[in-house]
Amino acid sequence: AQSVTQLDSQVPVFEEAPVELRCNYSSSVSVYLFWYVQYPNQGLQLLLKYLSGSTLVKGINGFEAEFNKSQTSFHLRKPSVHISDTAEYFCAVSSYNFNKFYFGSGTKLNVKP
Amino acid sequence: DTAVSQTPKYLVTQMGNDKSIKCEQNLGHDTMYWYKQDSKKFLKIMFSYNNKELIINETVPNRFSPKSPDKAHLNLHINSLELGDSAVYFCASSQAGQHNYGYTFGSGTRLTVV
Questions:
Q1: Which of A97, B4, B20, B114 matches a 20 to 30 Å C-alpha distance to A71?
Q2: Are B109 and B21 in contact (CB under 8 A)?
Q3: SS3 state at B16
Q4: How far apart are CA A107 and CA A85, in angstroms?
């Protein structure tokens, strides 16, 4: 079975500052990794995904994430955040052989002016 | 055109009532899901259907009954609603064998049981 841990429930940051949202996973098999964003009162949107190949993946809205197999991590980063990035961010894992996602508990990113 | 649409968006009802939430996707996907998001934002899968067949049924009370009349629709019926059922329910869809591309989510149904 897989599981996902998001270490920070809330991350406050000032506008134009860099941010990193942490995600660790556990799995006995190879996995696919995802980051989703949920804006207030909306559904989840896919930000980016790691399937294979380059460990640094780029997504929408200037976000990127790096897959680190030895540390079983998939941290999300943005070099300069905007007020509009305020949202809940979810890390998720899916195994190659089972069509099911496991989500982390979410990290609320609060960008202040 | 909304890819995954859920109705209603908000639902307020009394304990003991029976209610349904509907979900439709126009993406041509063959797999649909129901997720429950609790007050702490934790997302947990409830059900998954592939081509109208139930393939995932997590430990959900049998008061919850999904129904898939065709692969574009997955409805959720809840009997004898309880206070603890209050949550946001998300429908999602994907294409089997292509789950590595992620899910497409609906915008959610906020259920409040009073």
A1: A97
A2: yes
A3: coil
A4: 12
Q: Is A90 on the interface with B (CB under 8 A)?
A: yes
CB pairs under 8 A between A and B: 55
Instruction: Tell whether B54 is within 8 A of chain A (Cβ).
Output: no
Q: Residues in chain B with pLDDT < 50?
A: none
pLDDT digits (tens, 9 = 90+) for A23-48: 999 877 778 899 999 998 788 999 99
CB contact under 8 A, B4 and A43: yes
Inter-chain residue contact B42 with A43, CB threshold 8 Å: no
d(CA B30, CA B32): 7
8 A C-beta contact, residue B86 and residue B113 = yes
pLDDT in tens, A74-97: 999 999 999 999 999 999 988 765
Say if A45 is an interface residue toward chain B (CB within 8 Å). yes
**Residue B3 DSSP SS3:** coil
Q: Which has the closest alpha carbon to B90: B44, B26, B51?
A: B44
Count of alpha carbons within 13 angstroms of residue A18, beta-carbon side = 5
- Beta bridge mates, B104: B93
Bond before B8 cis per omega within 30 degrees: yes
DSSP result, A29-62 = S-EEEEEEEE-TTS-EEEEEEE-SS-SEEE-GGG
Of A42, A46, A94, the CB nearest to B107: A42
